[in-house]
Amino acid sequence: MTHPLTYVGRQTSRSDGEARRLVILEATLRLIVREGIRGVRHRAVAKEADVPLASTTYYFKDIKDLISDSLTFFAEKTLWMNEELENRSFELLKELDGLAKEDKHSELLISNLAQFISEHIREQISHRDNRILEAAFHEEALRSPQLADAIKRLDDSFLSTIARFFELLGSTNAMADAHQLLALIRYLEYKYVLIERSEGDDTQLEQIVASTLHNIVQSI
To answer: 64 with 146: CB under 8 angstroms?
Structure first.
């Protein structure tokens, strides 16, 4: 990530203190999944974490700091998925390099990319709680400049990864292409987390991704 997220709550160098702080952050994430951001209160978090109320107020005097640090903690836990996706996507690009040079508009190229992205979306959908957390943080960011800045930096890292991929594919509008693809991925994740998926949904998912990729690749 170009601009790493930072914690704003009280830090500690003691291992037992750090362990308790992490327990509080984990409890906060569980509360957000069950009750949304509005369910995050010092007393509720202390009960969920099974720690004294004084512990939550010691590390996080302001509830906004607790919510912000929960986002940072969540981002750190899940950022490796972005790094893994980046590595896998560039490995795929190397495998398809010959095909891209032979015919960058090839339906086979588009099909391989669509399958790869669809598999990523299915993996994301399988972690339903994480998708609920993302939606909750994005909604709260509309009200909180502090969260909005953190969300923007996190999203920028995803956009940068996708843009680099399209640059290597030869796009002259890589960032615009990245915005288009990320918007689709986010929409499909949200759509399929909301509903119970069937076999037909999987087929439709890949068709939607392939159609969008076809439009992007044809413009390269």
So the answer is: yes
Backbone region of residue 150 per phi and psi (left: phi > 0; alpha: psi in -120 to 50; beta: other values): alpha
DSSP, res 62: S
Burial pattern 36-65, b for ≥16 Cβ within 10 A else e, equals ebebbebeebbebbebeeebbbbbbeebbb
Per residue in 10-40, pLDDT (tens digit) is: 877 787 788 999 999 999 999 999 999 999 9
Amino acid identity for residue 5 in this structure: L
H helices within 96-173, ranges in order? 97-102, 107-126, 128-141, 145-169
CA distances from 42 to 34, 50, 196 (A): 16, 12, 34
